[in-house]
Design brief:
332 residues, alpha/beta, TIM Barrel, eight-stranded parallel barrel, 9 strands, 44% helix, binds (3S,4R)-3-hydroxy-2-oxopiperidin-4-yl beta-D-xylopyranoside, GH10, hydrolase, xylan degradation
């Protein structure tokens, strides 16, 4: 580590009363000492990258394996980090036994109830915030198809929040999505959805904006929002009384032209702009990266191309993006 960094990101974030986090996975935590060191040193919030998704958690009906998630929770607690539980409901990474059976609406509601209570009760008091519903909005603005939507109907979302609140009344409950960072159809839909949920008295505490960004063209990924759009979007969610978490930030540089140095500088600017704008909003309570080292980023696998989307390189050296986050926190 560069010795000019006398502080860590987490110590700077603490002064601003915001949590700074990273998604972490069990495999890396188990096998990589440097990974554990940097994670605990720089971050005070840990999101479970895959270990609490329904499929990995319950590959067979009526059986849950909490082992890997527990190891992440234990690590976080040992290092005085809070936990973001990701995620109770999603359209992806569900167990085959769930999606390949023809459950009725009634059965699906029972399964939903059981899943939420089983998982949240197990970690009651240990998980600070849950992504109760992940990626519920389709890119066209409608509700996204999923096992839950087509078996239960649109009210699966409200059921999920109400049961989550019963299962752990102290947990902060979030709805989380991507492509909802700027102003536009998708983000309007998310806004209208949460506004409606609130109007109906649904216990929802906050909105998670994933912030998976790509600077150059990459089909399925979101362009960095303009500073103005982001600011206004955060303001309207905050005005509803909701907390805001940036939940999964990474910034792809694949397909960019220019030297590696220039690419990394551009990437750093995106990180700095997003964190700076987010910190201006008093409802911003957590800022989370999707990983922290390029060594284990999901992006190369997801896009099929090499990339370097995170603030630490493969050898745990801080990149310009790290300096950018550091500066943004210092300035806040
Ligand atoms: C990703 C993980 O990082 C990968 O390891 C896994 O193969 C697929 O899921 N949005 C989300 C996360 O909400 O759960 C996804 O995580 C990345 C996109």
């Amino acid at each position: 580590m560069d010795t000019t960094h006398i502080a860590s990101l987490r110590s700077l974030a603490k002064k601003r009363d915001v949590l700074i986090g990273a998604a972490a996975n069990w495999r890396a935590l188990r096998t990589d000492y440097a990974y554990r060191e940097v994670l605990a040193q720089e971050f005070d919030l840990l999101t479970t990258e895959n270990e609490l998704k329904f499929g990995p958690l319950s590959p067979r009906p009526n059986a849950y394996d909490f082992g890997p998630a527990e190891e992440l929770v234990d690590f976080a607690q040992a290092n005085d980090m809070k936990i973001r539980g990701h995620t109770l409901l999603w359209h992806k990474m569900n167990p085959d036994w769930l999606t390949e059976n023809n459950f009725t609406r009634h059965q699906a509601l029972e399964l939903l109830h059981k899943h939420i209570f089983t998982v949240m009760a197990y970690f009651r008091g240990e998980v600070y915030a849950w992504d109760v519903v992940n990626e519920p909005i389709h890119d066209n603005g409608g509700l996204r198809d999923s096992f839950w939507l087509h078996t239960i109907g649109p009210d699966y979302i409200e059921y999920a929040f109400r049961w989550a609140n019963q299962a752990d009344p102290n947990a902060r409950l979030f709805i989380n999505d991507y492509g909802t960072e700027d102003l536009g159809t998708k983000s309007d839909s998310l806004y209208n959805l949460v506004k409606d949920l609130l109007r109906r008295g649904t216990p929802i505490n906050g909105v998670g904006l994933q912030m998976h960004l790509s600077i150059a063209d990459s089909q399925d990924f979101v362009k960095p929002p303009t500073v103005q759009d982001l600011e206004e979007n955060l303001r309207r969610f905050a005005d509803l009384g909701l907390e805001i978490h940036i939940t999964e930030m990474d910034v792809q540089i694949q397909n960019l032209s220019g030297s590696m140095e220039e690419q990394l500088e551009r990437q750093a600017r995106v990180y700095e702009d997003v964190l700076t704008v987010a910190l201006r909003n008093p409802q911003l309570k957590a800022f989370v990266l999707w990983g922290f080292t390029d060594r284990y980023s999901w992006i190369p696998k997801a896009t099929g191309r090499p990339d370097a989307p995170l603030p630490f390189d493969e050898y745990y050296q801080p990149k310009p993006a790290y300096e950018a986050l550091y500066r943004a926190l210092q300035a806040a």
